[in-house]
Write a structure and sequence with these properties.
alpha/beta; D-Maltodextrin-Binding Protein, domain 2; five-stranded mixed sheet; three-stranded antiparallel sheet; signal
């Protein structure tokens, strides 16, 4: 072989090697999470947020991180994140949890703009049959003892409220007082899921029902707004001092608002599940931050997950299956989120 031939052969070999390196998947070349562990938290309130947690963990593992999952209530998570004992959670409800977050905002930060596309809504619902029969189109009509008596057994309307300790229940109790409903409406605070099972059964039997709920939730599948139930507009914006007002409670495009009102004045402005993380963790892990900033799910997905968990239980196997199915159906988008996160510096 001549000298020129040797040079040509060497050049070809170098080019082949470069091509081979270029075809190595990006994940093999560089994993931003290599050698790192994410201490990830999910709240102790089971729901569609658990499916999102599984999707989030899949992403972090693809980015090279080891993941340690803890289940803690949000108040304890705030304390742990501020102290650096936990890194991130993606199921913090705002604005309800804002007071607790403000106590640790020097050490923690909100990441992204919320995981529900368009956000969610909170408000009061009654069965459509009773609403139509008695022309009930606003929450204020519950001041009328005759109307209120339709929804209770002792002359007062039984309003199914949130669990004791849930901030949404504090909103409801505050509004009952603020709107002058204490003489005609009785707040029922117990285990919400069990109370709502009975409410669903009442509506299915054609009986009156009055309850507080939110969307997306399993309720939207069991009792469809506009079909089985209607949202009752509130007379004014009114929140207790512990829940900051993040905008008007007037929400446009609410399906099933009583009387066809649009916008429909809900119990409060739109809410969302958001991510909160320790500031030091965010600064050291831009890939996780970039992934969370892209991660969003439509209302329909959240409601379907909630409905499945309510119907079939919230086993780890079921939650993982739903997460796997979602990733499989949206692989192109999920992979795009991963790639964008991987390339973030």
């Amino acid at each position: 072989m001549t000298g020129t031939s040797r040079l040509k052969a060497l050049a070809a070999a170098v080019a082949m090697g470069a091509l081979a390196f270029a075809t190595i998947p990006a994940a093999a070349q560089e994993l931003p999470g290599k050698g790192k562990t994410v201490r990830y938290a999910q709240s102790d309130s089971l729901g569609a947020n658990y499916v999102v947690a599984q999707i989030m963990m899949k992403a972090m593992k693809q980015l090279g991180y080891d993941v340690k999952l803890s289940t803690v209530n949000t108040t304890l998570f705030f304390q742990a994140a501020a102290q650096g004992d936990l890194d991130i959670a993606t199921d913090v409800n705002f604005p309800q949890r804002e007071p607790g977050f403000r106590a640790v905002e020097k050490q923690a930060e909100i990441v992204g703009a919320g995981l529900i596309v368009g956000g969610g809504i909170n408000g009061y619902l009654i069965d459509k049959k009773t609403a139509t029969a008695h022309n009930i189109t606003t929450l204020e009509q519950m001041k009328d003892p005759k109307i209120a008596a339709l929804f209770g057994r002792d002359g007062k309307a039984d309003l199914i409220n949130c669990d004791p300790g849930w901030s949404c229940g504090d909103v409801v109790d505050f509004q009952i007082d603020k709107f002058g409903l204490k003489d005609t409406v009785k707040s029922i605070r117990g285990k919400y899921e069990a109370l709502m099972v009975e409410a669903v059964a009442r509506v299915k039997r054609g009986e009156p029902a009055f309850f507080y709920a939110w969307s997306p939730s399993w309720m939207n599948n069991a009792l469809v707004p506009g079909q089985d139930v209607v949202w009752l507009p509130t007379p004014a914006d009114a929140l207790p001092p512990s829940v900051p007002n993040k905008g008007s409670a007037l929400v446009s495009g609410v399906k099933g608002c009583a009387g066809g009102a649009d916008p429909c004045r809900m119990a409060m402005s739109s809410w969302n599940w958001s991510a909160v993380a320790n500031k030091g963790f965010v600064a050291a892990n831009p890939a996780v931050k970039a992934f969370v900033e892209q991660m969003k799910f439509p209302l329909e997905d959240w409601s379907n997950w909630e409905a499945s968990i309510n119907k079939n239980g919230g086993s780890t196997a079921l939650v993982t299956k739903m997460a796997d199915e979602w990733v499989g159906l949206h692989k192109g988008m999920f992979d795009g989120w991963i790639e964008a996160a991987r390339s973030t510096k």
